[in-house]
């Protein structure tokens, strides 16, 4: 498992020590910590180390030359950068000899909430720009597509940046401009540092840039990205703190908005219950459950009448189809506020699909989430086959874990994945990391194989409904980004890759 943070951790292999070096366990090879981790202040109290920008004479440039010529096994490149290079070369097919970023599409679909985020970031960016003007630096704010909305900096650097279209209304997503601070931050979770020859396009090797994305606190989808770039000059040592502070402020406002939306969903739920409606639940725009009554809680595998207001700790339903329905309904309702829908989903209590009615709930003109009534249809639009229904005979089973002297009974949706450590099995759950009561990963994989869990590696079993993203590695191996508060990444072995692709429909 790889902790998907700037401070990387690989259980069973080693940890990032206070001196900024890998401390190996079990014969793992030691390697220096990434400059990105040091730069963003993820080591101990040491000073941030920001080396001068390489313009193409070091080992990274040599690795870049080999990689653009088709070589897969290159040395001296940080893993997060190499993953980005793979995306640029194989998925997006970006020309590494591109000399400027393309112009962005003129169409804008920004919501009011997104506009508020852009405005807040703009005010913060203008303040930071005064600090980098003397360092050949500029500050940019871009939207979720990588389109630059505004640029700040001294006139000379702004003019130089414009030569590469590092300017307003150009597009700096990875799919158009390759590895760069803005585009790569939109692809990953956490701050990103890209310097010199780490950029995919050679024309941008003279720049050092650091970016961080602001993400929706409910869906985790990117809304905007804040970026600082310096021309042939090291980034200020406090850049990481600037970016983190700016995002923390903006995320704080989004969390407040999410709590207010949850309160509106709970009020709509109470009104539905007052009208005698049963088997009703309120879900947010990402399909996580805010509150459910006793019948809906039983069907969805979540606690009954237990509000979950905080976006980070909402309930995960054991019905993946219902999550897909909610996500589909979100996309429709954002375009048509009058939209309502109905479909059918399979539950673990019946052999036949049950009808489901979906009605959006709005708060101050913005979509807060949906009321979902199980066992009832609606006069609204039927959902198409794009919201699939998959038969499931999943029984209401529990996984038993141990915490101190107590046995903990976990619902299956609470378990994100399991990792073996010798004879012990550790469960990564919504309640934290717990040791499984039964030893042996083989036994756990066999017991849960028909309940949506899959063996993906000799050391890992994952809950398929908790996979949030998929990344491809250096040799086309897969990494699963799990849906949890710690942003864990689980590797997929080559032997298990075909089964994972089949299970996920890849």
Describe this structure in words.
The protein has 506 residues and is α+β, with helices and mostly antiparallel strands. It folds into four domains: 1-33, no CATH class; 79-237, GAF domain (Beta-Lactamase, 2-Layer Sandwich), CATH 3.30.450.40; 258-382, PAS domain (Beta-Lactamase); 398-504, Beta Barrel (OB fold (Dihydrolipoamide Acetyltransferase, E2P)), CATH 2.40.50. The chain is 28% helix and 26% strand. The chain has twelve helices and 24 strands. The chain has helices at 35-39, 59-68, 79-91, 112-132, 155-163, 174-177, 181-187, 239-274, 294-300, 320-335, 441-448, 497-504; strands at residues 2-3, 14-16, 22-24, 137-143, 148-153, 192-195, 207-215, 222-231, 280-284, 289-292, 341-345, 354-363, 366-374, 381-382, 398-403, 406-411, 415-421, 424-429, 432-436, 453-457, 460-463, 467-472, 478-482, 488-491. Strand 11 (341-345) and strand 12 (354-363) form a beta hairpin. Helix 4 (112-132) runs antiparallel to helix 8 (239-274). The longest helix is centred in the middle third of the chain and has 36 residues, at 239-274. It is globular and about 65 Å long. Residues 2-35, 41-56 and 378-396 have low confidence and may be disordered.
């Amino acid at each position: 498992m790889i902790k998907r943070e700037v401070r990387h951790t690989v259980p069973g292999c080693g940890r990032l020590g206070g001196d900024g070096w890998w401390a190996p366990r079990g014969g793992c090879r030691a390697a220096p910590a990434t400059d990105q981790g040091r730069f963003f202040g993820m080591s101990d109290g040491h000073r941030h180390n920001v080396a001068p920008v390489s313009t193409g004479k070091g080992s990274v440039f040599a690795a870049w030359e080999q990689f653009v010529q088709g070589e897969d096994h290159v040395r001296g490149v940080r893993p997060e950068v190499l993953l980005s290079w793979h995306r640029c070369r194989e998925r997006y097919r970006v020309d590494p000899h591109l000399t400027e970023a393309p112009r962005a599409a003129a169409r804008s679909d920004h919501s009011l909430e997104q506009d508020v985020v852009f405005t807040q970031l703009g005010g913060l960016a203008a303040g930071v720009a005064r600090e980098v003007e003397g360092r050949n630096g500029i500050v940019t704010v871009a939207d979720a597509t990588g389109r630059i909305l505004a640029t700040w900096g001294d006139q000379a650097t702004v003019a130089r940046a414009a030569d590469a279209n590092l300017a307003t209304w150009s597009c700096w997503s990875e799919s158009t401009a390759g590895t760069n601070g803005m585009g790569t931050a939109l692809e990953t979770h956490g701050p990103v540092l890209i310097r010199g020859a780490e950029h995919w396009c050679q024309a941008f090797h003279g720049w050092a840039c650091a970016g961080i994305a602001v993400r929706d606190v409910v869906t985790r989808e990117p809304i905007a990205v804040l970026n600082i770039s310096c021309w042939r000059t090291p980034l200020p040592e406090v850049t990481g703190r600037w970016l983190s502070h700016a995002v923390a402020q903006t995320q704080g406002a989004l969390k407040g908005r999410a709590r207010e939306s949850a309160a509106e969903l709970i009020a709509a739920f109470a009104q539905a219950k007052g009208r005698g409606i049963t088997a009703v639940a309120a879900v947010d725009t990402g399909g996580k459950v805010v509150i459910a009554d006793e019948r809906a809680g039983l069907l969805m595998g979540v606690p009954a009448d237990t509000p979950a207001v905080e976006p980070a700790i909402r309930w995960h339903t054991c019905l993946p189809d219902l999550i897909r329905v909610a996500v589909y309904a979100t996309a429709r309702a954002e375009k048509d506020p009058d939209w309502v829908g109905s479909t059918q989903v399979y539950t673990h209590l019946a052999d036949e699909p049950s009808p489901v009615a979906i009605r959006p709930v709005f708060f101050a003109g913005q979509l807060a989430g949906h009321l979902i009534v199980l066992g009832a249809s609606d006069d609204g639009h039927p959902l198409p086959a794009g919201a699939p229904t998959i038969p499931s005979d999943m029984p209401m089973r529990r996984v038993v874990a141990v915490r101190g002297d107590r046995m903990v009974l976990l619902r299956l949706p609470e378990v994100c994945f399991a990792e073996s450590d010798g004879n012990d099995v550790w469960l990564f759950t919504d309640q934290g990391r717990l040791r499984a009561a039964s030893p042996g990963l083989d036994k756990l994989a066999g017991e849960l194989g028909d309940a949506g869990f899959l063996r993906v590696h000799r050391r890992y079993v994952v809950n398929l409904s908790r996979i949030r993203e998929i990344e491809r590695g250096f040799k086309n191996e897969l990494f699963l980004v799990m849906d949890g508060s710690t942003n864990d990444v689980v590797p997929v072995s080559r032997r298990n890759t075909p089964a994972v692709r089949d299970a996920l429909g890849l």
